Give the backbone structure.
Amino acid sequence: MEHTVAHEEHSGGGTKEIVRVTVILSVLTIVELIIGFWMMGMPLESGLRLAAKGTIVILMLAKAFYIVAYFMHLKHELKNLIMTIVVPLALFVWFIIAFLYDGNSFRNLRNTYDPHFKEQSTIKVE
């Protein structure tokens, strides 16, 4: 009686894909680190520094979507299933950004509100 493994031919393809995913994620991470170290020498109020931060955020989002596509196996799924995951995620991120922007606006307005100014500007009635 012989004992054979039924799926020997599939072992090589999975390893190549794992190595490819690892290399792509490593390259994106190294590019982010290079941009981050390059950004450290820039002045704080530089427009180039802001562009570097935006590039890092875009690369991080690309890595996140790549990880979701491969490790959650969404790459091989139907478009409709992918959209049911990506659209709510995008809306959630948009809500977080909107709430942070609104909170910052409230903080700035609260810090500039002066009730004493309102009391001084009214006309005194005798």
The longest helix spans residues 79-112.
